[in-house]
Fold Galactosylceramide sulfotransferase-like.
Amino acid sequence: MAGSEFWASLTHRPTQLKFLLFLCVVCIVCLLVFDGKINYQWDEMLFSKDSIGNETTEVAANATARESNASENLLDMATKCSPMQYILFLKTHKAGSSTVTNIFFRYGDSRDLSFVLGDDTLIGWPTRFRLGQALAFDGTRPNFLCSHTRFNKKTMNHLFPKDTSRYITIVRNPVAQFESIFNYMGMGEVYGLGKDPTGSLKAFLKKGIEFKDITKTRSSRLVRNPMLFDLGMDYKFYQNAGAVKEYIASLEKEFDLVMISDYFDESVVLMKRLLCWEFDDILYVKSNERFDKERGEVSEDVKENIRRWNKADMLLFEHFNQTLWRKIEMEGEGFYNDLAMFRRKKAELKDLCFTNETSNQLMYGNKYAKMMTLKPNLPPETKVKCERMTRTENSYLAYLRTKRSSKLKGIFSAVPNEDDQEKVSWDVASDFKYDPV
Ligand SMILES: *[C@@H]1O[C@H](CO)[C@@H](O)[C@H](O)[C@H]1NC(C)=O
Ligand SMILES: *[C@@H]1O[C@H](CO)[C@@H](O)[C@H](O)[C@H]1NC(C)=O
Ligand SMILES: *[C@@H]1O[C@H](CO)[C@@H](O)[C@H](O)[C@H]1NC(C)=O
Ligand SMILES: *[C@@H]1O[C@H](CO)[C@@H](O)[C@H](O)[C@H]1NC(C)=O
Ligand SMILES: *[C@@H]1O[C@H](CO)[C@@H](O)[C@H](O)[C@H]1NC(C)=O
């Protein structure tokens, strides 16, 4: 029977109408039962996610009670996230990383979270990070590593498991970054080219240095491709295009976010979204900025030579600049609303805390940097909040070490050791499994 005929005949045949109604009722009942099942399964899935152990029977018993709330929970999961508090920040040199570290210090300190600390500003740098370089842990899993370390995948992955931690670092346009490092570290003098920031840089770039001279002093390792050095690449591969590209690709896998100093606010807002933090958590004032007189003049030729001498860092920067903008694009409109909101809040805070003047601040050893001047007569609570933003890294570190050792008193403390035989097994990987003849 054709459809139209069926519908036409319906009006005349009460039995068929009844049959159709019956079918409808059956369908509705089926839907209800089926829907209930789905809810139930979702519910169990949601629940078992955060349950541990043997509570299955209780889950089943509670499932019906929770059924009505299941769709709410799903919505929650989709729209809410919980703040990430396990963060490895690979602190690169002269790329705005002190400002990021200050953000982490404030966040962690105010919540009594733990930091991986060393007995110096640098933890083991310039050697690759090893557990033994850090001060003893208190037996709990550390929340932050944000001091200067050199990247070491295996050890860091052990301390900050990838699936439950976030890996962040920051890079900067190499032209600006290299000039900054060269003069900050006094490389002109190290290589016998004098103190003049402009002249010594230009002379250095005439021919660069021999491979063997890169280890002349501790910090002279930063005299070529400083960012890739901090990120753990071996300098013997600096001139190997294939190795550099592979290494950059491996960093892309390793880091959840590579911030770009040249787009600092954008980077910080991306970080906020990645970590599910609040605006208040990411407010900052620039830290460890040098005075203009310490800047060298950089002519076009010198800029071009910086790019050529640091070709590997150029590729690194270009790669992650692209990645950053791709990520921003993927965040959609909401990102720019957040960015505007963040900048507004930042300006408000600056107004609240600081005058327009800058002064000298002793940062590391004999290094001074610009510091914002606090407004006089701030209410005590505001004053503390404002001061923390300009607190130097070393002052924070000293304070965190004391805080940590008082926490440690009487508590079991273990010094994890990579060579600890109990934890080492051939079976961590099977690629080169021993297979004798
Ligand atoms: C459930 O786990 C607890 C401890 O986690 C244990 O004491 C108990 O025996 C377990 N019950 C069953 C039925 O497995
Ligand atoms: C089940 O519900 C009871 C009462 O509402 C509650 O005390 C219990 O913790 C619940 N169990 C689980 C596993 O959620
Ligand atoms: C359902 O949600 C309401 C409000 O969010 C809550 O008060 C209630 O305890 C929840 N019921 C169950 C069974 O989880
Ligand atoms: C970074 O990438 C953006 C987008 O592709 C581009 O417009 C910008 O010029 C790049 N910045 C630098 C400093 O290269
Ligand atoms: C501080 O800066 C603001 C805006 O940039 C300006 O309006 C104000 O006059 C400045 N104050 C002083 C004391 O320079």
Observations:
- The beta strands are 87-90, 144-145, 166-171, 257-260, 354-364, 367-374.
